[in-house]
Design brief:
alpha/beta, 7-stranded mixed sheet, disordered C terminus, 185 residues, single chain, 7 strands, Nuclear Transport Factor 2, Chain: A
């Protein structure tokens, strides 16, 4: 009997630790901050990718699509999402049809991605795509909620700033080789 009670208490303690360690994440951070650093928290780009893929499969009709992630999203996250999708590009012009991820919320064990997607005749619709985390399989699709908002305008256009290519310091400091005629190459 003591063994069974100990096992139940240990299991309860373990589950409590797991849920406490998972914490919660809202991306972009609340409070109007758009400084997100070099990357989003680990599951966020994967959830964005899965949500856009779901919307493309269910509502999309275009292989050449643009995506617009929340303001402040680093270029590296755009690259990660586009690589995960296997296609797509960042939204380049205001008014261009695009799949807009507006928010990602993680509250253990659930995750939700708010997405605005294009429909026919320039209309947009808003959907929340829900995922549930399984300890073995990770985040799995759990459902959608389509918000009937009429012709919801798309979110503001955002394009990440490109990372400027800089020569590594050791290359810049190396002397140029001279050719046979004494001119630098």
């Amino acid at each position: 009997m003591k063994t069974a009670i100990s096992a139940v208490l240990l299991l309860g303690f373990g589950m409590g630790c797991l849920s406490a360690c998972a914490g919660s994440v809202t991306y972009p951070p609340p409070g109007g901050s758009t400084e997100l650093g070099e990357a989003a928290p680990k599951p966020v780009p994967a959830l964005m990718t899965r949500a856009i893929r779901f919307a493309l499969d269910r509502y999309g009709d275009d292989d050449a699509f643009a995506i617009n992630l929340p303001p402040g999203t680093p270029a590296a996250v755009y690259d990660e999402v586009i690589a995960g999708l296997g296609a797509g590009r960042p939204m380049l012009e205001v008014g261009e049809p695009a799949y807009h991820v507006t928010k990602v919320t993680l509250r253990w064990p659930d995750a939700k991605v708010d997405l605005v997607y294009p429909r026919a005749h320039g209309y947009y619709e808003f959907v929340t795509i829900s995922f549930r985390r399984d300890l073995v399989r990770g985040y799995e699709f759990a459902g959608t909620r389509l918000w009937r908002t009429g012709n919801r305008p798309p979110p503001p256009h955002y394009t990440p700033q490109p990372v400027e290519a800089q020569a590594p310091p050791e290359e810049a400091s190396q002397p140029q080789a001279a050719s046979a005629d004494g001119l630098e190459k």
